[in-house]
Structures are given as structure tokens and as C-alpha cells.
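anyone seen this seq b4? input:
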Amino acid sequence: MAYKNICNLLQSNVWADFNKALNKPVFEQSGNGWQFNAIAESGHGKVGKFFKRLYAPYGPYAINDIALTEALNKLEQIAKNNKADYIRIDPATPLQNSQLLLNMGYIKTTRNAQPSKTLIITLSDNFDDVLKNMSKTNQYLWRKAPANNLSFEQFYKSDELKPFIDMVSSTAKRNNAIFHNGNYYKTLLDTMGPQKNACVIYAYLNNKPVAGAIFVDDINTKTRYYMYAGAFDEARKVSAASPLLVYAMQQAKQQGLTSFDMFGVAPKDETNHKWAGFSKFKRSFGGTEVTYNGTYEKPLSKKYKLLQLARKIYRKLPI
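predicted toks r here
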């Protein structure tokens, strides 16, 4: 029995197909009251790439402890068959008993692999109600967009990605950040675009693209996810990112979607968090905050201790 309709995007069929297109082995499993999609992959970064893992992002889903135990046993079986050094999970549904994970050999990580919090905005029947929950600044920028010579357009084909990839490169240099390469975004739209499960939206200033973002739509849950964004310097002059996001919500509503997931915010009290500024921007659109359970890992080989040691030494490297 599958439970796709109540799972996070990263546990959906469309995300599984995307990872398969990236040539990653994906294991889609379900049982009585549980389900997961897990990816067999190498870790990231200079250290992580030397370790193999089986990862169920925002999974597994389970309706109770018995179902969760069955899901975890199945995960371990697959991981061992694929000679993984460890299992990684981020249970997205409420845990009746977090001690169960510890009893089964899982360790709560000090850093979460996926955002531990997000904001979900309800796309009301009357879009004016969505606007009313935003900051006055965002409302003003949306109304002012035509006067600022801003326009917007949504595309589903990867042929339209060249400006976005350039924007991401510009943003990475400006913020000293690391983003995916162009092939990653191209594969995403090639895989999901034809079914209109993913799109890129641009903000144009005087008909020139200055800001862009990629969104993924989970039709089962009727949710649009705000996944990746980039911009040129010119976008900051007219705060193009704000009305672009409003336009994305408006389009999602018109397409029959009912929720908009910001896909990650930093805790409010962590003012030094690397996402603090971006999270403040996201919170200015309103929404309900959702907290997840965080990341757990289960060691399967002696090499895992080396990974833990390396993480302590190189805390700034991806894990």
C-alpha cells in the first residue's frame, strides 16, 4: 500500500524519476502503513564522496512504530545489499517514539541534511487573502511591478534555462556559495517539464531577464515548492525577487494548486545561520511554520567513524 499523496516532494514519484535521470539507483518500496524512496549514492564534498550511503530524503513515511520498524528493516536490507557505509533518513512525519530510532542504531546528526523547518502558504480561493498575509513591502512591490517595468513569464522547457544558469553563476560568485551545475537544472526540467511538474519563472526588467527561480509542483499534494533561485545585480534595484515569488504563487493558484512550500527556513533565533537573511525574506510572505524531525544516520561499516572524525575537522565542508 503506497502513501504518495501525503509525502514530501522528495519522496514523490516525480522526484524519484528525476534522480533516475541523474543515473542514481532509486529504491521505491512500500508496505503495510509505510513507504519510502531511497537513493544509493556517494556523499558530497571532498570528504563525503569517499563514503557510500542509502538516503531516504524526508522519509520514510510510517503511520506507527510497527510500520516504521518494518520500513527501517527494509532500508537496512537494501543498504547492505548495496554495500553502503551508512543509512541516512529525515522522517518527515510525526515520530510517535524517537527512541525507536536510537534503539535501532540510528544517531541524530548535529547538522541536518534537509531543512528542519519550512513555511507553507495556503493559496486561498481569493488570492487577495494571500496578499494580505504578506508584508506591506511585498504588497507594495507587487502593485508597483508594472511601473518598475517588471514583467514575468513561466517556462517548462530546458531550452529556456540559459539565463537562469547565468543568474545562478552570478549569485554564487556574489555570495561565495556553491550551486548545482547547469546539467542538474536541465535534467530537472527535461524530466518534469513535459508533465508540467517543474518550471522556471523569470522576472524581466525592461524585457531583460534579471531574476529567476525554479519551482517543482507535486500534483498529488497540490503543492508548489520554491526550489532554486538566482539573480543578476540589476534585480536588486527593483527588488525583483519579491514580485517574482508572488507571481509564482498566483500562477500556482491558477493551475489548481492549493499550497506553496518555501522549502526551508532557518530557526528564527539563529540570527547567524547562513540562511538567516533568505529566511527573513521568505517569512515576509506569511505562511505556517512546519518543523521536521531532522536527520538520523545508521552506521553500517567501520568507515563511518572516519566520516564522523572528518566532519569534526572539516565542519564547513558539505556532508
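Residues 4-114+293-313 form a domain with the Aminopeptidase fold (CATH 3.40.630.30). The chain has two domains: 4-114+293-313, 117-290. kinda curious what u guys think
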